[in-house]
Structures are given as C-alpha cells and as structure tokens.
Design goal:
This protein is of the alpha/beta class. The chain has 2 domains: 150 residues, Aspartate Aminotransferase, domain 1; 255 residues, Aspartate Aminotransferase, domain 2 (3-Layer(aba) Sandwich), CATH 3.40.640.10. It is 39% helix and 16% strand. The protein is built from 14 helices and 17 strands. The strands form 5 sheets. Strands 4-10-9-8-7-5-6 form a 7-stranded mixed beta sheet, sandwiched between helices. Strands 13-14-17-16 form a 4-stranded antiparallel beta sheet, covered by helices on one side. The longest helix is centred in the N-terminal third of the chain and has 21 residues.
Length: 420
C-alpha cells in the first residue's frame, strides 16, 4: 500500500493524500459499469473493501481456518490468538479500557437488540422513559418499540430543526428523573448531521440516564475515544468501515456488561452446563454464543489497520474537502433542494430534485456507472418530518475524488435534461 505521500492530485488541500494510490488498493475500481468508470457514492450504506481486508479474510479460510477457543491443536490455537488479537485492535482503536468491553456481534443492529433485550428488559419498566432522536435509523427505533410494547415504558423523541440540526436545548427539556436511557446516533445516515454527542452524554448523565450511541456513520470518518466521551454503550458495523459484512462491535462499560444477563445461549458462552443449572462464561464470551464470524473479526481488524495506515486526519481532511466541493458544485444544478443542511455535517449530500423522483435520479445515474442511494434510508421518521417520501443520497469515502463528484454533477444535469 502506498497511499500516503506528497501529492496534489485532484487539487485536494491535503498534500499528504494520494487518492489515486488509495483507489488502487480497492480491486472493485478496476471494473467498469455499462462501459463507464465506477463512481461509487454509497459508502454510507456499505463501503468498498481494500485488498488487505480481502486478503486477510481469504487467508483465514485458505491457510488458517479452524474453530476457535475450544481446540487444543495448532490451527485452532493459532487462529484463536489471531481472533483475540483482532479484539485487542478494536479495543485500542476505540480506546476502551479492556478487551472484555469489546463484544463481537453481527453488526450495530444486533448490538442494539442485545442491549434492548438484556439491559433494557432488566431496567426499563412502566414508569420509565427513554429518549431517541428524530435522526435515528430504524435499527435504533424498532428494537426499543418492541420492548416498549412489552414493558410499557415511554419513548420520547429529541427534535431537530428543518435543517437537520439536533436541538440540544429542547432535548434537555425532555430529560427528567424518569429518563433511564438515551439512544442516539453520532452521525445521521440520512442527512449527515453530526450530533453534539459529548454534550448529549453529559446532560443525560447529569439526570442519571445511560447513553447508547449508534456510531455506524462516525467510525469510518473520525477517531473515537469511548472513555473520553463517557459513552455507556457504543455500537458500530464493520462493513461501513471498509471491513467485512456480518461483523460489528458492541462496546459497553464492564460494570454494565457484568450486570446484564446473556443475550443468547449456546456454546462458548458457558462455564458449565447440567440439566439442572448453567453457569456463564466471563466477559466478553458471555455474550458471544456459538461459533463467531472468525474471518469477519480478523477482516475488521485489517480494515482498522488500513485506515490507521492512511491516517484519520488525512481521511478527515480529504473528505472535508470533498464535501466542500460537492456542496459548491451541486448548487449549480437547477431544481436541487439539499435536505441535510445542518451546521455540522459529515460527507453526505442528501437532496431532492424538482424534475424527478429520487428513484428516477438513481436509475439514470446508474446508467453512467454512478452509484448513489435513493429511498428513505431506513429513516422514515426523518422523511415524515421533512414531509417527503424519499431523498437521493451521495456519500463519500476515503477513495472518492473530485472527478467522482464532477461525474455525479454531470449526471444530475442529465436528469434535468431528460425530464425537462
């Protein structure tokens, strides 16, 4: 990999970022779509994978594979060590205090369900309240509604304004001595809004509430220190971080995990089993029943190594310049209405056009090899708030270029020509 060097490629402000070398690390960009270069602008849904991640997963299955933790032979012991080293890489990356606080799950969706069905089932009752935000992905709404319908607690909603800004003052007014949990996104997948997460956590803790943070959109773009944030739970998915699908992490403070009952029963989460009684394993294995996604955990570790090699400041500066350029260029398109205009946003352009429905926009762009996301983005409450059925969304990753944005803008002009 040779992706960090002095370069002025694409006119980007960051002179230590060679985006063309980075693109060469991603095999998918070697192909064309309908005879056109692939312009991939859907990293918020799922990011592409560098060769180092693909190689790590392939090596696991080709050269190293065995079931882990319970085998006394060489392959099992070797891969167990590698899997647990991956856990340590993740711990170090989010700066958790202990690898016991890093629970491998299938993704953020499972992590939230785990917290809902263990901590939530034990601690939320009919007299209690929790707070979500208007910005939430369905994965941070539906699990709580399912539990609410059983336990009969109240769900409050932290509001946003019409630009997508999270209203911290209005949120604080909803906090009271009944509030037991705040579950909130760090960055909105639909609008790109970066919530004031540090202030949210401080206010929640001031009122005695715990905080779960959905960090899916944050981890690909910024470094996170869960201890410094003082997050009680922090969840994320590997596939948005240039890692494999089907793997993610639940971080939780050790004292909380120790007090939570197991989420699933099965192999590896037990210490002893009889027909009369089962005793459970220590953390983190207490929450990892069955054979895990071994290659996924190792691949996610490789993805973190890749991002660290590129450098998060380099990634941040590059994506910030892409966003600035994209916001400037999209204003040149007639009939555009940006739907994510918060004061602090990540690399997402969410918009509608007067001339065409978002699905038509996506279909036309696809014919030119341009991949964007269209629809409600698993965030229907935001669409309802904005009184629209859907948006078109372009989202940036570390491999995107200004040329990608130029092709995207040309595609939007084409949409207008077709529907005019």
């Amino acid at each position: 990999m040779n992706n960090v060097m002095t370069s002025t490629h694409n006119g980007l402000a960051n002179l230590n970022y060679n985006v063309q070398a980075i693109r060469e690390d991603f095999p998918i960009f070697e192909q064309q779509i309908y005879g056109k270069p692939l312009t991939f602008l859907d990293s918020a849904a799922s990011a592409q994978k560098p060769k180092s991640v693909i190689d790590a997963v392939n090596s696991c299955y080709s050269n190293e594979y065995a079931n882990i933790h319970r085998g006394g032979y060489f392959l099992s012991q070797t891969l167990t060590a590698k899997y647990e080293a991956a856990r340590e890489t993740l711990r170090a990356h989010i700066k958790a205090n202990s690898p016991k606080e890093v629970i491998f799950v299938r993704g953020a969706t499972e992590a939230i369900n785990l917290v809902a069905q263990t901590w939530g089932r034990k601690n939320l009752g009919a007299k209690d309240e929790m707070i979500l935000s208007q910005l939430e992905h369905h994965s941070n709404i539906v699990p709580w509604q399912i539990l609410r319908d059983e336990k009969e607690f109240t769900i409050q909603v932290g509001p946003i304004d019409d630009k997508g800004n999270f209203l911290l003052d209005e949120f604080e007014k909803k906090l009271n001595n009944k509030t037991k949990l705040v579950a909130i996104t760090h960055i909105s997948n639909a609008l790109g809004t970066i919530t004031p997460i540090r202030e949210i956590i401080k206010l929640a803790h001031k009122h005695g509430a715990l905080v779960l943070v959905d960090g899916c959109q944050a981890l690909p773009h910024m470094e996170i220190d869960v201890v410094d944030l003082d997050a009680d739970f922090y969840v994320f998915s590997g596939h948005k971080m240039y890692g494999p699908t089907g793997v993610g992490v639940l971080y939780a403070k050790e004292k909380l995990l120790n007090a939570m009952p197991p989420y699933q029963g099965g192999g590896d989460m037990i210490r002893s089993v009889t027909f009369e009684k089962t005793t459970f394993n220590d953390l983190p294995h207490k929450f990892e029943a069955g054979t895990p996604h071994i290659a996924g955990g190792i691949g996610l570790s490789a993805a973190i190594d890749y991002m660290n090699d590129v450098g998060f400041k380099n990634i941040h500066d590059h994506e910030k310049e892409l966003l600035r350029y994209g916001l400037e260029k999209i204003q040149e398109v007639d009939g555009i209405e940006l739907r994510g205009r918060a004061d602090n946003i990540a690399g997402i352009l969410s918009f509608t056009m007067k001339s065409a429905h978002p699905h038509d926009i996506g279909t036309i762009l696809d014919q030119d090899g341009i991949a964007i996301r269209t629809g409600h983005h698993c965030a229907q409450p935001i669409m309802d708030f904005l009184d629209i059925p859907a948006t078109a969304r372009a989202s940036f990753g570390l491999y995107n270029t200004k040329e990608d944005i130029d092709r995207f803008i040309d595609g939007l002009h084409k949409v207008n020509r077709i529907f005019a």
